[in-house]
Amino acid sequence: MKNNELLNFNEAIKLIDENAFLNKSVSFSFEKCTGLILAESIIASNDIPAFTNSAMDGFAVKSEDLTCASKTNPANLEVIETVAAGTQSTKIVSCGKCAAIMTGAPMPQGADAIVKVEDTERAGNIVKFFAPIPMGENVRFKGEEAKKGDSLVQKDTVVTPGVIGLASSLGMTKLNVFEPSKIAIIITGDEVLHPGSQLQPGKIIDATGPALKSALISDNFPVSYFEYVKDNPADIEKVIKTAISKADVIIIAGGASMGEYDFIQDCLTKIGAKKIFWKVAVKPGKPTWFGKFDDKIIFNLPGNPVSVIVTYYLYVRFLLRRQLGYNSDEARLKKTMVKLEKTLTKTDQRLEFVRGIAYNNIVTPIQQRGSAMLSGMANANCLIKFPRYCEKISAGENVEILTFDI
Fold it and tell me: Looking at residue 393, what is its pLDDT?
């Protein structure tokens, strides 16, 4: 690639991937684990179910007692006990007898099937049964789901509520997962006012910081350092050094271009950070910078808020999820093909990610496509992939979209 050529998007992703490393494993309580990746498989510590039990409320019977049962000739059995969930049966179900039983209660000795309550009629201690029942019907047998020692959930699986429920049923209170990277956010610019400030001439109230922090929190990445810094090289250098000491991945918003007050890259060079790439043939987000300081990852993203949000989802989130243990495909935004509702055109020979609203396999492009137009980003639920050298996509054509799986 020549010095004046822009890196293409896939090349940028490849370089990020090559510099990602798998984080260490930690033991976290359940409430911290959702969305993380298992560092160890979950092994059954006992048979599942641990004992043979009823799959529903009904009556435990000997199936042979109902062989000739019918609507005109019901089998009449005597109820000898009621077995509630959490209790143990104290009697044996013999011929002509049955036991009332609740869902999850242990099967009484002698019984081999469960008849649903709604398929019976009861009068006092006598229950009428109107049809035969197969042996084992409505019974959950000990170990039918898994045997002690079986691998239930493989290492490298995403932790979901189902995984947590299963782990809890085995008596676990924690899971071994790959630890999320600690994140530092630095927002640069003399023009930036803190959220909640009164708007002043020539100033803007920060949107980038809250949006970026929200994106990270929703993806379960802890923000360990957040700072605003003016366009002063000495202050910038000091803040970057502090961020490096407190975080694993540093995200700097602003100062990524070639303006008179874009000092970030000079400061990064001065402290010894290594540039891996700068400038990608993508819109929004062309001046994205990616590099390292020792084992710390640094992103310098463009200052416009839409550019920051889009490049977070395209680049930063990809790296963070790779370091969590997601595979390359899982780390990316989910993609699908849908029909384009309105024609799109462009003259810039960059890959453009157009904000869109996807619904029922149709995507409508947001009209506000500027990188400072947050209203378009606020209403979007996906990015429409507008290929680099393509100038027009007509309404009705199939397009690839990347969806925000928040």
Answer: 97
Distance CA 107, CA 51 (A): 8
Can you give the pLDDT at residue 5? 75
DSSP state of 71: S
Q: Which of 346, 365, 347 is nearest to 355 (CA)?
A: 365
Helix (H, G, I), strand (E, B) or coil at 362: strand
| 30 and 305 Cβ atoms separated by less than 8 Å | no
Q: What is the DSSP annotation of 142-206?
A: TTSSB-TT-EEE-TTPBP-HHHHHHHHHTT--EEEEEPPPPEEEEEE-TTEEPTTPPP-TT-EE-
Task: Give the domains, in start order, of the chain with CATH numbers.
Answer: 9-23+180-331 (3.40.980.10), 27-48+144-178 (3.90.105.10), 53-140 (2.170.190.11), 334-403 (2.40.340.10)
- pTM (2 d.p.): 0.86
Is pLDDT at 332 greater than 80 in this prediction?
A: yes
pLDDT at 83 > cutoff 60? yes
